[in-house]
Each structure stands twice: as structure tokens, then as C-alpha cells.
Amino acid sequence: MTDLTHRGARDAGSISRGDAANLLGFRDVATVRSAEAIEVQRVPAAAYSDWGAAFGSLAARADSPNPFMSPASVKAARLFVRDDDLVVLAARSADALGRPLIGVWVLRRMRDLWSLGVEVLQTPLTPKYDCQSAPVLDREHAEAALDALMRHLRSLPGLPRLIRATSWPVALAKGLPSGVRVTFAERWSRAILCGDASMCGEEQLKAGMGGSYKKRLAQERALHRAGHVDVASLRKADAVAAFADFVALEHSGWKGKAGTSLAHLPSDAAYMRATIEAHAADDRLSVDVIRLDGVPVAIGLVVEAGEGSVFWKTAFDERFSRFSPGVLLDMAVTRRLFREGKPMLDSGMMEFTDPGQQIWAGRAPLARATIDLGSGALGWLAGLGLRTRHRLRLLRHRRGG
Asked: The whole model's pTM is what?
């Protein structure tokens, strides 16, 4: 397996750092100084399954932990994706004691209708269900680590030079190496919770929800008057067992009627169950449930990495819509995260969704992005397919489809 070491000016002979920066395409001398101490390697997917502790340490040092880059997520994906199609890149600080992990990025080789049959690298691995594309980067080395990961990816023989990222942070467009082009399609602002640890959960909800806070409290009291209400956060084996309730609850609503629920899609359900089992085994997943007289009225799947969480999927009983059970579940999860001292949550919402419908006031600008590492004519062809898809999606959205 190719293992390229990014050592910047060390390999530049006796030339100056400034000249090395120009030759290597780095943006400035400071980046050369950072990049020369970074080593990047492609890790076999099977071996990466054992990197749980290393990934956990990195996620704790990252501003965007992204659980969909974790060994647990890759372990689940391997049941459905060939190992040869999984590209796992790891960046390490070469000079620091113990060579700590400072960057991880997981991508998948694939081709489909929207790439016009041209092979691309997809991130995340399953965009239909996973909602974060960004690599996990140590916050103190983020720019240099991203630079090194991109350069290494571009250097590997036999891999596509075009990346399709379905949830790319717009801010990361500024951290790409020279010669790498990024094109945005759909853009949106995702609601996020960046809690103030000095506040309690209720104070945060009141501040973030504004005038709707009292209305939701009234709905919460009304739900309690309707019967016995139980709010639970299930983990490990209990979380895995609760997936059956989630599938049933989702199927009872509009997705079941439309034929798009997991109950209609056994292969999708198998993937989600495998992902839940893998994260639950690491105790990095919670299934939050609101029950009324013992019957689930709202269920949320929350995946964790580092100090952050992602609200992965949610389902609620539409017969109780007058109580807004989905919003009440969001509030319950927020309170739990504050109690646990980890008030960081990505809502996971995708494009064409109004962030104002969420109870969290933070915003993260995202986009569907095409990242061109120098793909040439094939990249232009694949880009044409992706742009066509974008136009069709916009047309469908405007028509209310």
C-alpha cells in the first residue's frame, strides 16, 4: 500500500522554505513548517476496525468529531461495501511523542447515474443516511492536516481524482491545497447546538427557542395529562433492541404510506442496524425515547464522537402531532446532553429544510460539493452529471415534490 510522507522542506534539499512553498504548492511558509511534520497513510479497512481508541482520542481534540468517519461506521459499511472500495486515510504528527493521530478521512469509490458512470470518491460512505462529509481534524493542526490528506489522496495511483461530498462545511473550502477546486451545488444552514456549559439545559432551551419555548412547555404538560409519560435514553444492548421500535414507528407515518420507510427497504434497514450495533458496542450511541403509557411516541437515534453528537434519525407517532412529539424529543435530548456535560449537537438536517424549524440557534453553513483534485476530462463529465442532478433537485423542490 502506498504510504506517502509529507515532509515539506526536508525533501527540498538546500532551497529556502519560501522556495519550497512555491514548488510544493503550499499557500505559505507556515504551512510548509506544519506539513513537514505530518505523515499520511492509507489504512486497510479491516485494520482500521481496531483503531477505536485512537479515533476517540482524535475526536476529543476535533471541532467536528464526525462519527461517520469512525471505525464503528467503517465496520458497518464493510458488510455492504467491498474493502477495496473503502479509502481510509490517517494523518499523524511525525515529530510528536507517540505520533498522535491528527486527521482521519474515509471515502468510498463508486460510480452511478449521477456521475455518468465515471468513478468518484464519495463522502460520507452512505449519503442517504449519513450527514457529515468532513474529515476529523485535530483543531490545533486542522489546516495542515487537511492539506496533507488532500495531497496524499491526489498522489495515490489508481484512485479517482474527483470527490463528491454531500455535506461539506463551506468554511473548509479555504483550507484546500493549491490546484484543488471545489464547486458548490445546494447550500443550506444546518441548525446546531453549541451549548454554553455555564448554563443549564433549560436556560439554553429558553434562550434558543425564544417565543416558542412557552408553547412547547404547554404541549409537554398536555402530553403528561394524556397519560403516563416516560423519557428514556437507551444504550448498548437496550439501544440495539429499540431499533425495532424505531422501524415500526417510522413505518406508521408518512414514510410508510409513501413506501420509503425502512420496513420497505430491508437492505437499508440492515445497514442501519449494523451501524447501530457497531456504535452501541463502543457505547457511542443513544436511542432517546418518549413513551406514553408504555408506547413510543417519539424515538431519536443519536450518534456520538468525542464531546459531540449527531441527531442521526428521528421518528414520531403522527397521531400525537398536536403535542409536537418530535420537538419535545429534541428538548429531551438537549436536556440530557447538558446533564452529561456534552452540550454539542449537530441536528443532521439536510438541504431544503428550514433551520428555523429546529430548536437550536447555532448555524453551520454546508453545501453539496464537488472537489476536483485534478481529474481532467473525466472529472468534467462527472461534474456535468452532478450539476444536472442539482438542477433537477431544485426543480422538484420548487414544484413541491
From this structure: 0.85
